[in-house]
Write a structure and sequence with these properties.
This protein is α/β, with parallel strands linked by helices. The chain contains eight helices and seven strands. A seven-stranded parallel β-sheet has the order 3-2-1-4-5-6-7, with helices on both faces.
Length: 250
């Protein structure tokens, strides 16, 4: 991780679960980290929980990634305050309990696409433009995808509704962005990490009741994978990393 010491990483969805674990891990490993989320009080709690020396390297900012202007303003703030970010962990994501065939579901369907797909697009565009302005060509964009971005899991009694399609879009976007980075002659890397079930707030009681024996990963397991992917040598780009808990049946 030597080359990332004191360089800036932005982590979206930092107020719980995988994003929180990534913030803790990256700050502990010497990066300057900006954690974004809508629940500012949770970000403040996370900052307070860190050792004092790490608190100084952890910045928080309220940002709803589904609102394009908030993302633009946030990355402008990172540029002005911290000189710009070189690593982005696109982690913010939501799963709504619904069905495509259910009446009055438009708000839920839109929210999933706006967060999981367009939030990833706005954040990646803004960090790329910032890096281009600063002549940074060795950055890294990571996205927390899902096994549901490659194959639709069958969950008895539940529909993955817009969630699985949003993650399939993430899989496609990673390759589109890889090609754009190549055309723009940057060495900045892009990596999709696709976990199976992780023990976070997104796996609610209803899912647990429907899948009582579901083996679960820990958020820290995914944070480890993010660190592993960003510390690879300059010629190595992990395109897709799938992580399943042992015993997964999907
Ligand atoms: P959590 O629900 O614990 O965390 C989701 C995070 O996303 C929260 O910090 C939440 O913060 C943030 N978030 C949601 N919407 C927005 C928004 N519009 N703008 C900014 N932040 C937002 O779940 P996980 O940690 O599990 O989820 C993280 C990622 O991992 C997601 O992309 C998810 O799809 C993916 N994933 C999770 C799996 C699992 O089994 N847990 C499996 C595979 C992938 P706040 O509400 O404060 O804004």
């Amino acid at each position: 991780m030597d080359r990332w010491q004191n360089r800036v990483a932005v982590v979206t969805g930092a107020s719980s679960g995988i994003g929180e674990a990534c913030c803790k891990d990256l700050v502990a490993k010497g990066l300057i980290v900006v954690g974004l989320a809508r629940r500012e009080e949770r970000l403040t709690q996370l900052k307070k929980s860190l050792p004092a020396d790490q608190q100084a390297r952890f910045h928080i900012r309220k940002c709803d990634v589904s609102v394009e202007q908030q993302v633009v303003d946030t990355f402008a703030w990172v540029d002005e305050t911290l000189g710009g970010a070189d690593v982005l962990v696109n982690n913010a994501g939501i799963l709504r309990e619904s069905e495509i065939t259910k009446a009055n579901n438009s708000a839920d369907m839109r929210a999933v696409l706006d967060t999981n797909v367009l939030g990833f697009v706005w954040c990646t565009r803004e960090i790329f433009l910032s890096q281009e302005k600063r002549n940074v060509t060795d950055g890294h964009v990571v996205v927390i995808n899902s096994i549901a971005g490659h194959k639709i899991p069958i969950v008895p009694g539940l529909s993955t509704n817009m969630y699985a399609p949003s993650k399939f879009a993430v899989t496609a976007l990673v390759e589109v962005l890889r090609q754009e980075f190549l055309q723009k002659k940057t060495q900045t890397k892009i990596t999709s990490i696709s976990p199976g079930a992780v023990d976070t707030e997104i796996i609610d009681d209803k899912i647990k009741a429907n899948l009582p024996d579901l083996p679960l990963l820990r958020s820290e397991d995914i944070a480890d994978a993010v660190s592993y992917c960003i510390q690879t040598p300059p010629n190595v780009q992990i395109h897709e990393l799938t992580i399943k808990p042992v015993g997964e049946m999907f």
